[in-house]
Design goal:
The chain is α+β, with helices and mostly antiparallel strands and 335 residues long. It has helices at 2-8, 12-23, 34-49, 54-93, 95-134, 141-184, 186-222, 266-273, and strands at residues 277-282, 301-305, 314-319, 322-327, 331-334.
Length: 335
Amino acid sequence: MKQTEVLLQPNPNARIEEFVYEKLDRKAPSRINNPELLGQYMIDAGTEFGPGTAYGNALIKCGETQKRIGTADRELIQTSALNFLTPLRNFIEGDYKTIAKERKLLQNKRLDLDAAKTRLKKAKAAETRNSQLNSARLEGDNIMVNFSYVLNFLHVKWLKSEQELRITQSEFDRQAEITRLLLEGISSTHAHHLRCLNDFVEAQMTYYAQCYQYMLDLQKQLGSFPSNYLSNNNQTSLTPVPSVLPNAIGSSAMASTSGLAITSPSNLSDLKECSGSRKARVLYDYDAANSTELSLLADEVITVFSVVGMDSDWLMGERGNQKGKVPITYLELLN
């Protein structure tokens, strides 16, 4: 239980605060978690760099994804605490303490029973020895009187020990029945905690699936930013460095030796609005992230066209019999 609490809330100070609020029967104030905090810092930094710059835009996208992960993390904590941690804590602090208390009481009753059996055994042994002495027919009135007194005393002690044993045995049997009934309920408790454990696993599965999907979407978004974007800054004599939207990366002035004219970056957006196809030169190598995308090689020429409903950062590319999505910023349209 404690380690689950550590997993869900690694900050010990936050755990102590939540414990205090729980004991005071008050709701703990909502606090921003680490992914949400990182996401906010990324968004702020991206805004300062400028959402129109490639780096600023990428920071904002990463920040938004981190905040979504933070929201998923918050949902995981709430779901796990409600469906797994709370039932486990209620059992440990409630039924388990009762069972432990009754088992300890049963152990004490067993010790009392063992002690009563030992006393009875000693009383019987003493009475047997005195009976053997009586059979020896000791002479003398004083000796016989004293011996009879001792014999009667041992007999009374034996009867008292036997009565004490019956009472102790009865108490032990009653306590054993109580403990047995409590322990029989463990089976249903295990079945309940098994369902709670399944809920916990499902909550984790949902959380990690969400995080994976968020990062996959982020990877696709960042795929529209060429990995060698910064290295192009060294080509200032040939390629002006873009300072606005990521689509402007396609405005590179890298001249083609084939004599084909290169379109302006605004035509990339114009192509999204029309239904025709155009030829485009690939600026950078691109590895397809999945089967819906098309891998590209630098300097090859492919046919591109827009598809209704497709993300604004992508076009549909075609090379022979191969077809798939390609990022706009990896292309230069040709006339």
